[in-house]
Amino acid sequence: MSMSVVERAARAPYNFILRHASPTIKRFFWDREFASGKWNFIDDTASDTSYPYLEKYSQKGSILDLGCGPGNTANELAFTAYRSYLGVDVSEVALAKARERTQRCGRSQKNSFVHGDMLSFVPPRLFDVILLRESVYHVAMGNLKSMFERYSQYLTKDGVFLVKLVTGNRYTSMTRVRIIESDFEVVEKGEHSRDGSTVLVFRAKRALS
Ligand SMILES: C[S@@+](CC[C@H](N)C(=O)[O-])C[C@H]1O[C@@H](n2cnc3c(N)ncnc32)[C@H](O)[C@@H]1O
User: Ligand 1: does its nearest atom lie under 6 Å from the Cβ of 101?
Assistant: First the structure.
């Protein structure tokens, strides 16, 4: 599912501008991306490295997926592995695909989707897992800490963040991993040579008593 290193490098200038753009501009860009069919290659990701972690940590509970895209996770994750799933994305085109796929897979009772920018989105309830699967690249490094601190309020008592990113030894991805490792309590980290991905499971640091 992951983009090649060359494709990623070519997109870097766009990504830089987009991280700081308004939600309307982000939506325009991502809608155009998904409508073009350019991202159809991510439609089948059944063996994604994040799924075993999601199954382990959601404990058959609730998942909030920030930058959910066209609904892979919501429809490929084992049906019995979760109780409810809410996907958020800036692209209405991606959300329309996600809703259509959810209906086709008979998962409308469990999956729902809402339009929003993860930088400002306010979750409607608490979640057992807050997931960013290949969407953390779209958050500027300077916003990472404060964003995860804000979302910490929306995790259940034993809830965790789960971030999957393809590092490919790229400086910007590795730095994101380092920021998370230094500012949060990492519960589990997996590095997968199969696709060069890193999965981080973490939560806010707990005060020593
Ligand atoms: C590489 S795709 C990953 C999609 C999905 N998580 C997956 O792994 O299949 C990145 C997604 O992040 C979304 N996105 C980018 N910036 C966002 C933002 N600020 N808030 C919410 N979604 C965003 C894009 O629209 C796109 O769907």
Answer: no
Rg of the chain's alpha carbons, rounded to an integer? 16
Tell me the CATH architecture of domain 5-203. Answer: 3-Layer(aba) Sandwich (3.40)
Q: Is the CB of 54 under 6 A from ligand 1?
A: no
For the CA of 45, the closest atom of ligand 1 is: 9
Residue with tokens 């020593």: 208
Question: Atom 16 of ligand 1 has which residue's CA nearest to it?
Answer: 138
Overall average pLDDT of the 184-197 stretch: 94
Coil, helix or strand at residue 64: strand
- 134-162 residue pLDDT tens: 999 999 999 999 999 999 999 999 999 99
Q: Give this prediction's pTM.
A: 0.90
